[in-house]
Design brief:
Elements: E1 7-10, E2 20-23, E3 29-31, H1 39-48, E4 58-60, H2 66-69, H3 72-79, E5 82-85, H4 87-91, H5 93-103, E6 115-116, E7 120-122, E8 127-132, E9 141-145, E10 150-154, E11 157-158, E12 161-162, H6 172-183, E13 189-192, E14 198-199, H7 201-215
Parallel strand pairs: 3-4, 4-5, 5-6, 10-13
Antiparallel strand pairs: 1-2, 2-3, 7-8, 8-9, 9-10, 11-12, 13-14
């Protein structure tokens, strides 16, 4: 689904999946391919928009919980793209990949990166900065393009909700602080990794107000 000239959104397909975003530019980037079981459906939807897996140069993630990164390696095999992590993903790898898997009684699916993201992501027409937003996960980063008012925010904040804080490395107080900081930014497109997107500056503002009033007390 095309959101802007350079940004495409693909909703999650089921349990253990997440929303996926594709930045189609001089350097094309796929963020959070989700769960490997749903990869054929994701690719089919991308192809409807004229995007072939081989068009993708970089695979990266908002954070390394299983429902976000499990298809990284499979998508790399199909596309030839490189997996680039943020340094925070490596720093907290044991908490997010190993310890969270143990909670679900599963063996961790390990991920081998091809390199790391630079301080900013310049895809050509778009330039993203990385905002560290811990609370749901200690390695959570948001991709923020200020000129476009575009923020891919992972599981930090959703439409009328927030990410959970009971996984290893989670913190309700950190999540509240992260969301308060993000709420001060100029955002036209709030793009979470679960549920729907929030489009329009006034709707984004009201969403932050709702979360602050009705979700914060329960964290």
């Amino acid at each position: 689904m095309k959101l802007t000239d350079n940004l495409f959104y693909y909703p999650e397909n089921g349990m253990m999946d997440c929303n996926t975003y594709v930045i189609r530019d001089e350097v094309s980037v796929l963020i959070d391919p989700g769960f490997e079981q749903y990869l054929p459906a994701l690719i089919q939807e991308m192809q409807k928009d004229g995007i072939d897996p081989k068009d993708i140069s970089i695979i990266t993630n908002t954070h390394l919980h299983a429902d976000h990164y499990w298809a990284d390696e499979a998508f790399k095999k199909l596309s030839g793209a490189r997996i680039l992590l943020h340094p925070l993903h490596k720093q907290f790898y044991d908490l997010t990949v190993v310890q969270v898997s143990k909670i679900f009684g599963m063996a961790p699916i390990h991920l081998k990166e091809d390199g790391y993201l630079d301080e900013k992501l310049n895809t050509g027409k778009l330039k993203f900065e990385f905002l560290h937003a811990p609370g749901h996960s200690p390695d959570s980063i948001c991709f923020y393009c200020k000129p476009e008012g575009m923020m891919i925010c992972g599981d930090v904040v959703f439409e009328s909700n927030t990410g959970r804080v009971d996984f290893p490395g989670g913190s309700a107080e950190q999540l509240k602080q992260s969301i308060e900081g993000l709420s001060e930014l100029s955002i036209e497109y709030l793009l979470p990794e679960h549920m729907g997107t929030v489009v329009g500056a006034e709707k984004v503002k009201r969403n932050f107000e709702f979360v602050r009033a009705h979700v914060f007390p329960w964290l």
